[in-house]
Amino acid sequence: MSRVIVIGCGGVASVAIHKCCQLDDVFTDLCIASRTISKCNKLKEELQGKTKTNITTAKIDANSFDDLCKLFKEYKPDIVMNLGMPYQNLVIMDACLECNCHYLDTAAYEPENVDDPVWRKQYEKRVKEKGFTAYFDYSYQWDYHEKFEKKGLIALLGCGFDPGVTQAYVAYAKKHEFDRIDEIDILDCNGGDHGYPFATNFNPEINLREVSSEGAYYENGKWYSIPALSVKDTYDFDGVGKKDIYLLHHEETESIVKNFPEIKRIRFYMTFGESYIRHMKCLENVGMLSTTPIEYEGIMITPIQFLKAILPDPASLGPRTVGKTNIGCIFKGVKDGKEKTYYIYNVCDHQESYKEVKSQAISYTTGVPAMCGALMILKGLWTKTGARTVEEYNPDPFIEALDKYGLPKRETYNPVLVK
Ligand code: NDP
């Protein structure tokens, strides 16, 4: 028996909800709460009759602490799965603390407007202290650690694939394969083709902000920032083939370094095609990626939000996306006094995901781990309280659940390394 609220009803939330409903003996009561209630009702209708989960829906503005508390107090959830936007992470965490429920999300907090002067001041301070310049980082949510710990609650941060499964892979490698990990390369490859000249495979605002940010990596105790997309290589991915990879900043590199201080170097790479980069650079050059509202014919619009409104909805890419994703971690380290390498990853097929839950593989590879993270908490398999990331928990039951519920691991020894 459990009561769960899912906030958001987009690509990722829809997959997580489908998967929760497949495990209706655990996820017995589920409330889909989002900004556009018609989407929640449509999903509820699709699922009813196929699951024993008792589904309800609610309209919510996740920016409103009062509205969130009203809903949480009425519904009394054991856990709130925040699968909407990362802009609302902090207010949803506040409401969870107020109403005594666990919290889970899939992306680190970032502000809606990165030109906001109050946020900017705190950001500049962090850049000086930490040395990397991305707009998203865990510091804001780690500030909640003690508050959650004191209340005996869990805030599970970043429980998608990357962040999320990638950190479980690190904990798994450390537990089973290495005495010491020296280097990690996280590789995120989307070999899918949706047939559009330009579309993003998850929320366009968050995707474009992430990719157009400066990149960063960690080496020998220091963070290094690099201009966006300035470090490029190629890698031949199992199930996909050769792809260009670009070094980005990603939030899990920060938590992995914190939790495994032995690591000497960690980098994160993502694949992009030429068309994606050409379009993104052009949109950036003309100001369409700006998060600062401007006045247009008497109304205020935020360029990147307007852009999102005209781009294909990632949730609509499912039927037309073909190909596979391949996401995982390559390790270098030492076991029993000998140097070794190890690669653990998952390959996910866009069309198979669509057949199962009517979503493409990017939403699938995020929604399934979100469900598995909630499962770990609800079944009492992960109990450490506080605001924590996935690598802080026992990776075995989580990876077992991923194997069982749609994202099986593959492993190779002596993989080709990134230069
Ligand atoms: P979508 O844009 O498809 O969905 C976002 C949902 O949030 C929509 O249903 C939207 O409502 C709802 N929403 C937005 N603002 C509010 C608000 N103020 N109040 C209530 N609901 C709101 O995004 P995705 O599903 O693609 O992505 C969801 C999250 O997953 C993002 O944070 C993204 O960064 C993260 N992600 C994480 C990955 C990982 O591996 N860790 C990979 C991919 C994504 P409406 O329908 O009205 O627009």
What does this structure look like?
The chain has 419 residues and is an alpha/beta fold. It has a domain at 165-356: Dihydrodipicolinate Reductase, domain 2 (2-Layer Sandwich). Helices cover 37% and strands 26% of the residues. It contains 15 helices and 18 strands. Strands 7, 8, 9, 10, 11, 12, 15, 16 and 18 form a nine-stranded mixed β-sheet that branches. A seven-stranded parallel β-sheet has the order 3-2-1-4-5-6-17, with helices on both faces. The chain has a two-stranded antiparallel ribbon with strand order 13-14. Strand 2, helix 2 (37-47) and strand 3 (54-59) form a beta-alpha-beta unit. Helix 3 (65-75) packs across helix 4. The protein is globular. It binds NADPH dihydro-nicotinamide-adenine-dinucleotide phosphate. The site of NADPH dihydro-nicotinamide-adenine-dinucleotide phosphate has 34 residues, from helix 1 and helix 14. NADPH dihydro-nicotinamide-adenine-dinucleotide phosphate (NDP) binds at residues 8-13, 34-36, 39, 60-63, 83-86, 88, 106-107, 158, 160-164, 202-203, 206, 314-315, 362, 366.
